[in-house]
Amino acid sequence: MTSRHIAVDLGASSGRVALGTLENGKLHVEVLHRFPNGGVPVRGGLYWDILGLWREVLHGLKLAARQGDIASVGVNSWAVDYGLIDPQGHLMGQVHHYRSPRLNGVMERVRAQLSGERIYDATGIQFLPFNTLYQLAAEVPGELARAQTMLMVPDLLHFWLCGQAVTERTNASSTQFLDPQTGEWATELLDALDLPGRVLPHIVEPGTVLGELSTDVAQETGLQGLQVIAPATHDTASAVAAVPARGEGWAYVSSGTWSLVGIEAPQPVITPRTLAENLTNEAGLDGTTRLLKNVMGLWIIQQCNEGWGLDYGDLYARAAGEAGGTLIDPDDARFSPPGADMPGRIQAFCRETGQTPPQTPAELTRCVLDSLALKTAQILDVLAEVSRQPITTVHVVGGGSQIGLLNQLIADASGKTVIAGPVEATLMGNLLVQARAGGHLPGDDLRGVVRASVELLTFKPGGADLSVLRQHFQSLTRTHNEAEVSA
């Protein structure tokens, strides 16, 4: 049995339209169209060019139409951002970027109205200043009153593809107003903040067939009879669905602009300890919970390289030749905003913590990679403790899985075996969920298909003794963690 499916993957810095061919138990992925993405600054705000992204998606679908019979299409993207739809089905205004300055101070204002304990007990979601809860609270008065519904970014594109205005569970769970215990919207939180719960759409599960491509899109792209299937629309959820793990005792790092460090749990873990550690409980495939923590990832290096303009492969090779030892807390708030001054922010952190600041691109890159590896090891220890699940293996998927230095550093810092790959985990998870929903995937072993389809690299601990660096990192991050909990 051979089937073809289209995955649309929208990331914070780029987007892709890919064709997946499932044949003889293996999945072949071909990226047909790549396009840049990023925030568009306008008069002090920051927005996504959502119509530009839609144009690129349509172009990718036209390219896919030349490949022969295709069964389905599904969209995944980053989380938390949304569009408001009016009663006539039109997008209201622009889609705000999660790094927009409009969110400055909003989380603190909301938490002054509702305690952190109340919000966390109801949602189990990590406190991040860009969560959808705070974005709704930042809306201009009257906008929400005019809206018919709110659609997360991938749900918005599904709506434009086939006309179904629903939200898929994995992305809905990132909003910080979904109750992971009941699976329903936690509307009491919105009521307490005078935010209208009526705009929240019906929730569907990953793998839901939403309908056929609308007539106008079919005519525009040349794709006839194509099913629109909601995958796990949160890009991390799709990536975790394609983690090539076996059995138990494993964790994952979805490594890219963000670094998502977590485990797959059978149910949410919401305790005073997970609140204190600011862990998040997001929905995964087939009723699982992704217990994880968001860490500032390769974003820091990406922003540095905006000014350097260097080849990444060469940059990482040069960083491997550096001694390292200078560290930052990747989650310090100063590293969140975009800007070409990122190297200066790293150096300022180092000066403030009594360290000699790195100077060259290689030194700065090594500083960030060392810090990301140590942060990962720190979170893995906490995850094992709160879940009571021993962790022996760490699967690194996504773009960061190609950075051999980072993989080895994670193995050395954590003392665990690291398995790197696949790079295209998000696309593979998206495609396999579609294939299963359409009846094209015999059995239910998505991860077995991934293992059969890609080559994986293994990194064993022992490359370097990082125990002293771990102690150094603990002291650097302690102040930040205490401030995070008390905020």
UniProtKB/TrEMBL annotation:
Residues 6-240 form the Carbohydrate kinase FGGY N-terminal domain. Its EC number is 2.7.1.5. The keyword Nucleotide-binding applies. It comes from the Bacteria. It holds the Pfam family FGGY_C. The keyword Nucleotide-binding applies. Transmembrane segments: none annotated. SUPFAM superfamilies: Actin-like ATPase domain. Gene3D superfamilies: 3.30.420.40. GO terms for molecular function: ATP binding; rhamnulokinase activity. Residues 251-437 form the Carbohydrate kinase FGGY C-terminal domain. One of its GO terms (biological process) is rhamnose catabolic process. InterPro entries: ATPase_NBD, FGGY_C, FGGY_Carb_Kinase, FGGY_N, Rhamnulokinase. Keywords: ATP-binding, Kinase, Nucleotide-binding, Rhamnose metabolism, Transferase. Belongs to the FGGY kinase family. This is Rhamnulokinase. It comes from Deinococcus humi.
